[in-house]
Amino acid sequence: MLPFALGFLLVILQPSTGQFPRVCANMESLLSKECCPPWDGDGSPCGELSSRGSCQNILLSQAPLGPQFPFSGVDDREDWPSVFYNRTCRCEDNFTGFNCGECKFGFSGLNCTERQVRTRRNIFQLTTSEKNKFLAYLNLAKNIPSEDYVIATGTYTQMNNGSNPMFRDINVYDLFVWMHYYASRDTLLGGSNVWRDIDFAHEAPGFLPWHRAFLLMWERQIQKITGDENFTIPYWDWRDAEDCGVCNDEYMGGRHPTNPNLLSPASIFSSWQVICTRSEEYNSQQALCSATGEGPIRRNPGNNDKSRTPRLPSSADVEFCLSLTQYESGSMDKMANYSFRNTLEGFADPQTAISNPSQSGLHNALHIYMNGSMSQVQGSANDPIFVLHHAFVDSIFERWLRRHRPMLEVYPAANAPIGHNRENYMVPFIPLYRNGEFFKSSRELGYDYAYLQEPALESFQDFLTPYLQQARQIWAWLLGAAVFGGIVTAVLTRNIKACWKKKAGTSSEIQPLLIESEDYNNITYQSNF
User: Fold this and answer.
1) Does residue 34 form part of some domain?
2) What CATH number is given to the structural domain containing 91?
3) Does a structural domain hold residue 212?
4) Could you give the CA distance from residue 13 to residue 229 in angstroms, rounded to a whole number?
């Protein structure tokens, strides 16, 4: 029955977002540097005959980068994706996809004109049936090959500049593990040399937009392989948690009875093989992760280095982080102070917002606490808890966006670490997305969070907060203005009453003989000042 189900699901697969489109992973496309596949609906490149899009030259950002990466022309990810392709589909209206065959996030329908907003829910609020379905979807993704995407197993140089393509198939779940690895891997400099201070998805402004796009693509892929268009990623609200509430066989896998570093045999995830976890081995071989199995998922929650991560994040940590008004600051990397992004990512203290990379707060704290596959950046997405965790991190990002309502210009346009400027394309996504495109409300991207919808008072408080903060900054001026206004009003009232009293006791016939009415008005207003 399972082989039949898998075969049926393969039939209904449609194009989605990922790494290298299969139709462009060939010598002809690499040598021509063009990835403009036809849309099945009309057979034309990018669906041009149906006005969905057209094949265009890629427009790269020319904004200066930060000093963290002092090289040029040594990494395939520089000016993504120009090393591989310099012409791709540019889609119109609400169309997207590597061939303009899909709808943008938040839209659906034959012509992508129908708006939709789906709700991500707390995993503990799912029914037993919903929870079991989520687990089954994860396992299906781990066992069904990606029809539309392949991964690169060599650099462009190792491919002889395109004349010797090096790609391989991969299952749907591992496709996303590989993409996370590829965005965060070290730069291979030749020999045994590498450059470690580089990451296209972490330690810089793009951390939150990149993972937001990543989750949306992952969510859409699950919707496609299952046919469940209403599927959304659940989140794990870990605030004030005393232990790993999802680390049991009912949810994401309990502890192995004899080996605390492994998962319980009763969990479906105990049979999963991890990929892309041996970064030092790849570096020494000057090779890329080839996505071969490297052993089971490892996890030993709570038995981590307490000097680095003494506890799980608290509600107070989150609230302090949300109070920070600057999205990014200073060097815009893990040394940034008073940066909302750096504090939420976990390189700054969640009580002071001062950078302290020796400690792990908020987002980073969860990764370290899991003490296993989740704790190593490049391979962290192997553990399915990754998606639950990052969905909640994304919800905190969403709360900050709603509270502070930043303009797009708040996201740095220049001088951020490589790949993180506002107009840089995210590595390694095709179709192309810029960082700034995901610096917006989740509702505009077609999803929301259940706990942000209730109670209404919390949303109203988030709405008022930026205005109250502005009021606090000018409270002294407001107080002075109020006192002055009160004095002016009192004097005006007293003088007007005195004038009417005087008028009441004076004949209208002789009043002009006392003073002209124009002079009377002048004296009255002058006395007020």
Assistant:
1) yes
2) 1.10.1280
3) yes
4) 12
| Residue 17: closest CA among 211, 213, 152, 158 | 213
**Prediction pTM value:** 0.84
> Is 2 in contact with 8 (CB distance < 8 Å)?
no
Q: Please, what is the Cα angle at 343 between 338 and 349, to 5 degrees?
A: 85
Residue ranges for the chain with pLDDT beneath 70? 1-18, 454-529
Helix (H) or strand (E) holding 21: strand 20-21
| Residue 357, both tokens | 């990379």
Q: In the prediction, which pLDDT does 150 show?
A: 97
Pairing of strands 149-152, 20-21: antiparallel
| 406 Cβ contact list (under 8 Å, min separation 6) | 327, 439
Pairwise CA distance, residues 397 & 206, whole Å: 12
pLDDT of residue 517: 35
The verdict on residue 321 lying in a domain is no
Residues 6+ apart with CB under 8 A from 39: 45, 46, 47, 50, 52, 99, 100, 101
The rounded distance, in Å, linking the Cα atoms of 489 and 528 is: 9
Q: Is residue 48 part of a domain?
A: yes
